[in-house]
Amino acid sequence: MDGGRAGERVRAAIRVEGTVQGVGFRPFVYGLATRLGLDGLVGNDERGVFIEVEGASALVGEFTSALRDGAPPLAAVERVAAVPVPVTGRSGFAVVPSPPGGRRRALVTPDAATCADCLRELDDPADRRYGYPFVNCTNCGPRFTIVTDLPYDRPNTTMAGFAMCGDCEREYRDPADRRFHAQPVCCPACGPRLRLLGPAGREPAPPPPSSTAPGGAVPKGAVADGTASDGAVLDAAAALLRAGAVVAVKGLGGYHLAAVAACGPAVAALRARKRREDKPFAVMAADPEAARRLCEVDEAAERLLTGAARPIVLLRRRPGARLAPRVAPGDRWLGVMLPYTPLHHLLLRRVGEPIVLTSGNLGDEPIARDDGEAVARLGGVADAFLAHDRPIRARADDSVVRVFRGGPLPIRRSRGYAPRPLPLPRPAPRPVLACGAELKHTFCLARGGRAFVSPHVGDLENHETFRSFTEGVAHLRRLLGVTPRLVAHDLHPEYLSTKYALALEGVDRTGVQHHHAHVASCLADNGVAGTVIGVAFDGLGYGADGTLWGGEFLVADLAGFERAGHLATVPMPGGAAAVRQPWRMAAAHLDAAYAGDVPGDLAVVRRNAGHWEAVVALARRGVNAPLTSSVGRLFDAVAALAGVRDVITYEGQAAAGLERLADEDERDGYGCRLTGGVPFTVPGAELVRAAAEDLRAGAAPGTMAARFHNGLAAAVAAGCERLREARGLGTVALSGGVFQNVLLLERTVALLEERGFTVLTHRRVPPGDGGISLGQAAVAAARDRLG
Amino acid sequence: LAHGAGGKATHTLVEAVFLEEFRNPLLEPLEDGAVFDGLALTTDAFVVTPLFFPGGDIGDLAVNGTVNDLAMCGARPRYLSAAFVVEEGFPVADLRRVTASMAAAARAAGVWIVTGDTKVVQRGKADGCYITTAGVGTMDRPVRLSAAAARPGDAVIVSGPIGEHGVTVMIARGELDIQADLASDTAPLNGLTERLLAACGDGRVRCLRDATRGGVATVVNEIAGASGVAVVLDEDAIPVRPAVRGACELLGLDPLYVACEGRMVAVVDGEAADAALAALRSDPLGSGAAVIGRIADDPPGLVLLRTSFGGTRIVDLLVGDPLPRIC
Ligand SMILES: [Fe+3]
Ligand SMILES: [Mg+2]
Ligand SMILES: [Zn+2]
Ligand SMILES: [Zn+2]
């Protein structure tokens, strides 16, 4: 390098795009520039961060590359563009205000767990934020859930009503401080405060019910009055929990319901009042050590548990873990998370043991968000409300992941992840709104190469959820400044999301087949745009031929697909009733497997003898018995056969039970020979018959369950081999809710890799219907490019 | 096929094909019948498989259906016509059975069948026997009933337990070996409407609809859409006989969407609800009447069901045959 040129004074105008606002990027730029002795300025605008730096050209070069490499933890730098501009000779480096107006391009960031620096302050008796439940900085704290509008500045957050005190203001204005322009910055002198309300939503909360108190009476004075300090409020809430109460806790993206996880009566009361029969509860543990006492936590799991997103991680439960039996009945897995707000940290320490922390809602309604709503809906569930006066703008349920091959397998992508954009394999020429499916609903807005998948919305059949969807679309559109021109929707005519899409005016529409959307979501998840073998296994989706699909082999790219194979169809006797009652699917599958001559000695037949003949008649005569090729329903049938359950109380319960039942050391699998060429059929009847015969011959249900998993994995591999021969394709994308089953996923991926396939699985969006909206957006964008 | 299920597909068909060509002020509201010059006129074609089922046959349906459409306009049904399309080889004994039930139904409703026609078509060109009836009624009261007349605060009443006809026919059709104490609810409703209109007084009955194809769910959706209001139903208040509930569970049906042939939905001024209920219950055909919900202003056009669970499920018009939506 030429030494003279390195010393030459230059000035560069630099634009940084991506997730660069509200993540401490300007203090980082300020620190970097002053360390290098460069002059210039930095500011936020609607597109991201703009910078001008002036100084020796080598240093300006070093500065530019450090923008990417040294960015703060929560930033995601997507683009750095530098152009030379005339030298000004002005000295000093300044942070300049955001210019008003302009197009919205800056990105809202997800909420992030309390950082190590803030935790240190929380624990430091000398710090002015010692024990303050709302401590945060530019590296952590609330974001998406408190933003009301862009640009991301304090007046556009739910912190607008809190005037900063002098100390906070100084930190906020100091470019060298960790809290420089941290919008939610606050302290006990100026910020939100806790309060404890009784079940009617009025202060103060009642003393804990002494009858259920395992530890005896609660210290007098622990119950807060209206002016109690945050510490006293927390003491009182913890005392209530320890005494066996159910407490509603206002969190980041909504209210939770909490109870001590080891307290049987409290957990049972929570279940009864919330009317949630069996669906497992998640547990919050104070730290990784506490989590380890409940579950097996390997390195990958610990990374997920302690990451900034802090999802619920489904972990293998330790035998003898101190948990009430009703926390996760009969489950060998447990959903565990670590505290992600200072409030959670402080509460957990005071309670001194893990707590159940489940969504503050009844049934499948959206999680309660504002205080009045929470009191109205949870008043009959909670004994007290641990609330505060910082409003929640956007709902965000806890995210849920499983661990697959050392990384995340998303089950629900919500708080901590949404609305971080995901790259589209093919950029969208026009802005897209993808309306999603129906259950586990999300929607997606896409502009250019970025897709913004919403937080988990819930099951759209409820009015509250549907409203949460339509309001969510309006809010995210506003935050992103996007006006959709192309609307993607499912083909199911009865989905409320389809009806919503069809009622929109002034837009173009594209219908995306459900399983094509699943496969496309897996392609987008992996950044792949070519033609692949897509294996989409799920409960049900509306097929291109008007029947119900769910065991599909597609030859697909982003724009289109061919149905190249599927599970043999069976009737669903009673339609939706066959989903709620897996034994009906056993009846339909066994009737097909034994050509009408089902052995009467099978336990499932005996258990359901009362209605067996009538249900078989529905199936045979096609009375309210739509045909389906669903693998999810095949799982239901085999689960009922194995004695897992005949009737379910939540979606996927029987299939998940079959996975848990399976003996993981069993390597044998049932045979199942494809019929036809391309398209081919997978005769599920062979698997069902083999499973039934195995049981009749005395096989343990766990052995049978494992052999079914292995046989199905082998059938997938056989199907993919056939399509590789016929079409020369070597990449397989595995998607659909059935592939949340880690045992099936592991066995399938292993067989495919042994055979030399490249296998795509989900890492960023769920394989289930929570990922559908991303797939729809990817398809819509690809089609729009074809014109 | 989906165009016959009584849901949104039927609506689209009717609006696209018939309304477009025939458009006039009397047809436009797409009510059950047309009212003009002190008269009400309606017509209906009856196709049912099987022709005979527990509790009735196609003959009862053909008379009661038209009588009820007139009654829903607030008219007193008087005269009916009947036209038959009969497949070659249809047993004369069966035809006699049908006409005998028609005569009995006409007597019960107090109407005369005053004119008719019969066509015989080749074997295979029809499914046994189709009947079309038309009816004329007189508007003895100055009422103006309309699906567009519901207002927030009104009560939604059903005249008796729902779903009996549809479930009975479905089981009879499928030759399913289901033991259940079930019979069609086919019945004339003009006696009930007389009592109701007399008891409630001027303008307090907003709308009457017989809950035929698509059931109560479809009727209340029409009312919500036409009136621009919300209908909020209370799941626990909806009368369903245990036998019907059991059969619906077995068949996987939602009773709200199952057809009735002798039940109506009445929307009445909230303050007249008690009087309306008492009037209906004074007649044996209305002894099971119940207030099942209220009209609200928000969300306009939607029907919500407050479930026993505490949630509010959206009860939508079905686009076609009911299909599971669960992934
Ligand atoms: Fe799906
Ligand atoms: Mg009619
Ligand atoms: Zn921090
Ligand atoms: Zn302060």
UniProtKB/TrEMBL annotation, chain A:
GO biological process, one term: protein maturation
Sequence segments annotated as region (Disordered): 198-222
Catalytic reaction(s) noted: C-terminal L-cysteinyl-[HypE protein] + carbamoyl phosphate + ATP + H2O = C-terminal S-carboxamide-L-cysteinyl-[HypE protein] + AMP + phosphate + diphosphate + H(+); an acyl phosphate + H2O = a carboxylate + phosphate + H(+)
Record flagged with keyword Hydrolase: yes
Pfam families: Acylphosphatase (PF00708), HypF_C (PF17788), HypF_C_2 (PF22521), Sua5_yciO_yrdC (PF01300), zf-HYPF (PF07503)
Keyword annotations of the record: Hydrolase, Ligase, Metal-binding, Zinc, Zinc-finger
Protein name (database record): Carbamoyltransferase
Organism from which the protein derives: Streptosporangium sandarakinum
